[in-house]
Design goal:
Length: 405
């Protein structure tokens, strides 16, 4: 008598599976049991599966990771939230299984992010602790040295290492004028004592102060080290990585030391002209992230992580590289490659299902410029710990696609 077919909670069939961590790019099925990936192979028997998702014509990837978001809405305003996004709107409802909140909260209010936001979200929520004690919920978060509490920050990180993965500092006014290079040094000191990386926002979006530009080379050479992260790599703002239209040579020096570079599109931190200059110089960011907020999700120009991926692809980055930049690479940066960012048998079943759409699309930046692209990515579904999650209708009236040219 033949063996009976395996029972699975879920089988995703017929999709193009792209898993950069395991060098997979092939049409395969994925079986899920008890929140784990039970098999990745062709023609998995689905006769005993509790649920089958037909992904024919779609792309199946490790659960997307957004390395820069702001998802503290549930602890900010009672009603009328106009700044922070809820975790699942940025996450599973947009096809993303893991989000990293990049400094929305600091040592004095991160408990709300951990105990309320992360604890109640279907999305995996991780966080960077802002060097400012109250985070960008109170922006500008650093106005003087009084807004930094080294000991409280180190204690907070030690209390919740499963959620807090690093420190965030923004090189913006008035912090850069009040503290100068001591601002990122304070963040680095906290990160070093806590044995975590620091992520630095470059580009003074608050005042465009020339001090920020003076500090950028010093930051790259004298403060940041292996494992640290620069976000807003493709920014046009004063104090970002371009000086007189050319990439700062210190950026290459920092990369040689092991510093990572993230896109962080955001509402004010991406312009096509500066982005093309950086990429044409051969300096390709390590990761694509959205820096999504309530405003940039619904009013643009961010909209979603998948739209940010398409935006970067319009600059010449391949679809396959965009998948790597939102799966295995951010997992590596977070030190979590053993648990997220791949589709390994026996590993957690965090999975994204996407559609790659061919057409003529207009992608928008913060300056009003338009980038032309022939491919767009839209989310189809997210599976978190083996459970399919509901998808939002999208940030635009017509859904998830960018504007057609």
């Amino acid at each position: 008598m033949p063996d009976s077919p395996n029972s699975y909670d879920l089988v995703i069939t017929g999709g193009r599976v792209i898993d950069p961590a395991n060098n997979i790019d092939s049409n395969l099925d994925i079986a899920v049991l008890n929140g784990k990936i039970a098999g990745i192979e062709a023609n998995i028997d689905t006769s005993n599966a509790s649920r089958v998702i037909d992904a024919t014509g779609k792309v199946v990837t490790p659960g997307l990771i957004d390395l820069h978001t702001h998802v503290a809405a549930d602890i900010r305003k009672v009603t009328g939230e106009d700044m922070m996004l809820t975790a699942d709107v940025a996450g599973v409802n947009a096809g993303v299984t893991t989000v990293l909140d990049a400094g929305s909260t600091g040592a004095l209010n991160v408990g709300g992010l951990i105990n309320t936001v992360a604890a109640n979200a279907s999305t995996r929520v991780l966080a960077l602790l802002n060097v400012g004690t109250l985070g960008v919920i109170r922006a500008p978060e650093v106005r003087s040295a009084d807004d930094i509490d080294h000991d409280a920050a180190v204690t907070a990180i030690a209390t919740a290492p499963e959620v807090i993965k690093g420190v965030k500092v923004r090189m913006v006014s008035p912090g850069v004028t009040a503290l100068g290079i001591d601002l990122p040094k304070a963040a680095k000191a906290i990160a070093s004592e806590a044995s975590v990386p620091v992520m630095v926002h470059v580009g003074d979006i608050m005042e465009q102060n020339p001090v920020a530009a003076e500090l950028a080379p010093i930051l790259l050479t004298d403060v940041l080290g292996e494992g640290d992260i620069v976000t807003h790599t493709l920014s046009h703002q004063v104090g970002a990585l371009l000086a007189d239209g050319s990439l700062l040579p210190q950026a290459r020096e920092a990369r040689a030391k092991g510093v990572y570079f993230d896109v962080g599109v955001g509402g004010s931190n991406f312009a096509f002209d500066s982005a093309q200059r950086v990429i044409d110089s051969g300096f390709i960011p390590d990761t694509i992230s959205s820096d999504v907020t309530m405003m940039s999700r619904f009013a643009g120009p961010t909209f979603s992580l998948t739209e940010c991926m398409g935006k970067v692809m319009s600059l010449g980055i391949s679809f396959e590289d965009a998948i790597r930049m939102t799966t295995s690479k951010p997992a590596e940066i977070l030190g979590m490659s053993d648990s997220i960012g791949s589709l390994s048998v026996g590993g957690g079943a965090d999975i994204s299902i996407l559609e790659l759409v061919e057409g003529d699309f207009n992608f928008h930046d913060t300056t009003g410029a338009i980038g032309k692209g022939t491919q767009a990515i839209i989310p189809v579904a997210a599976v978190r710990d083996g459970v399919p999650q509901p998808l939002d209708p999208g940030p635009r009236p017509w859904g998830w696609l960018p504007t057609e040219a």
